[in-house]
Design goal:
mainly alpha, two-stranded antiparallel ribbon, 16 helices
């Protein structure tokens, strides 16, 4: 998951394309030898955001796939958080160490020993709220669906976080354009909630008609059928090769999915999913401003002469706190699970290799996606960098393609879904149009 961010240094790079950012991250300077690359141009920032967008929109789909195929979310998130931290370490020891260190632009290892703890604490605070938000969305996807969850959380992030970043960035973005985009995101939040409610009504109607023609009806019977199947389930699901027999969008598909998935949602209130989603969105709203303060020190918390944290150092501390909190919470959830999930243990987790490779991949995608986003945010402004919150467009694509979300739904649900996505796309475009340039 990402919010706008960037490094505190003003040295930049001439971004010639995504491959050069990944493969050739150094340039030769005639006067000072090798010099670190940092995103400087507006075009380079947008290119970073687009690459981050594809990564950040894909990793939720991978975790959702594992949950739908029966893998416990505690196991998945522990795997995910390991490679998420590893991505930050790789970035720190490559981009953060390449080139000559300067007093005003120290390399990563040098910054680790400097007296910059106020900025470090801001970065770590950002990691804590991001970790809480990502953990919450893992449960929200099961209740609300991948598409609506991502749209609502991203829109809340923009409405609150972008407003804060606008003022922290010294108003370098065009206010009349920026806040028009924020208004569009707010409308998208409302439409997303309406889509979820409408889809829940559609699913209830499908279950009620499951055994249409029988005198005793089937709403309760369908739920009873699921509960009996779940109670007798051995839990040995094939995560890697999960199969689906029923057609997407049918009542049989809903029951088959419920039997197979790890988080059971039948019989749960609609408001549980929305509550988790809004909590996640609130968490996401604050990690970008915290990262902003960590790299640019707008509140002047550093001592005179102490350089600002580079994006690489800040991202390292950010990811460490993210990892530590995720480790504590998910180990706790192994033994004290939430939402009626089955208990597990450290031993069970270590022996659970079914789907582990996919969880590792999700961690790398999220880690490098966040890193690219933070690198791009310094040039275009944190507020405009929140355009990477367009990630739900990628997630929605995966949700519809892989998971059959909204298949055979009512016309009302389709109208609301299209309205939500259109408003979201308009909001993203307006937000990118507000980009400024950090001097």
């Amino acid at each position: 998951r990402g919010g706008g961010g960037g490094g505190g240094n003003d040295s930049g790079m001439d971004f010639l394309g995504v491959p050069s950012l990944i493969v050739v991250p150094i340039q030769r300077s005639l006067s000072s030898g090798l010099k670190m690359y940092l995103v400087e141009s507006k075009g380079g920032a947008i290119a970073c955001m687009l690459l981050a967008l594809s990564f950040l929109g894909t990793w939720p789909a991978v975790l959702t796939l594992l949950e739908r195929r029966g893998r416990l979310p505690q196991h998945t998130y522990l795997d995910y958080t390991i490679t998420n931290l590893l991505a930050a370490v790789i970035i720190a020891f490559t981009f953060g160490e390449i080139g000559k260190s300067k007093p005003e632009e120290p390399n990563f290892l040098i910054q680790l020993s400097q007296d910059n703890w106020p900025s470090v604490l801001f970065a770590m605070t950002g990691g804590v709220v991001l970790s809480l938000g990502n953990l919450a969305t893992q449960y929200a996807w099961a209740f609300v669906g991948l598409s609506v969850t991502e749209v609502v959380t991203s829109s809340i992030t923009v409405v609150i976080g972008t407003t804060m970043n606008y003022f922290l960035d010294g108003k370098i973005n065009k206010a009349e354009i920026l806040f028009s985009g924020v208004g569009c995101f707010l409308i998208a939040v409302c439409l997303g909630s309406a889509v979820h409610a409408s889809n829940a009504t559609d699913n209830k109607a499908k279950l009620l008609n499951l055994e249409n023609g029988k005198k005793d009806g089937t709403g309760a019977k369908a739920v009873s059928k699921f509960e009996e199947s779940y109670a007798n389930s051995s839990g040995n699901n094939d995560v890697e090769n999960g199969t689906k027999n029923a057609k997407a969008g049918t009542a049989d598909f809903l029951i088959e999915l419920e039997n197979r998935r790890s988080i059971k949602v039948f019989g749960k209130s609609t408001f549980i999913g929305l509550g988790i989603t809004f909590f996640a969105g609130a968490c996401f709203s604050f990690f970008s401003p915290a990262f902003n303060l960590a790299t640019n020190d707008q509140w002047h918390t550093l001592k005179d002469g102490v350089p600002h944290l580079s994006v690489y150092t800040a991202f390292f501390y950010f990811s460490v706190s993210c990892f530590v909190l995720a480790l504590i919470l998910n180990i706790t959830f192994l033994y004290r699970p939430v939402l009626n999930l089955p208990r597990s243990s450290i031993k069970s987790y270590l022996n659970d290799w079914n789907g582990r490779g996919w969880a590792f991949l999700a961690g790398f995608l999220c880690g490098f996606g966040n890193g690219l986003q933070f690198m791009g945010g310094q040039a275009a402004g944190y507020a405009a960098a929140d355009a990477v919150q367009a990630l739900p467009l990628v997630s929605t694509f995966w949700g519809i393609l892989l998971f059959g979300e909204y298949r055979k739904s009512s016309r009302r649900t389709y109208i609301l879904l299209i309205g939500m996505l259109v408003m979201f796309m308009v909001a993203v475009g307006v937000l990118m149009a507000s980009s400024g340039h950090r001097k």
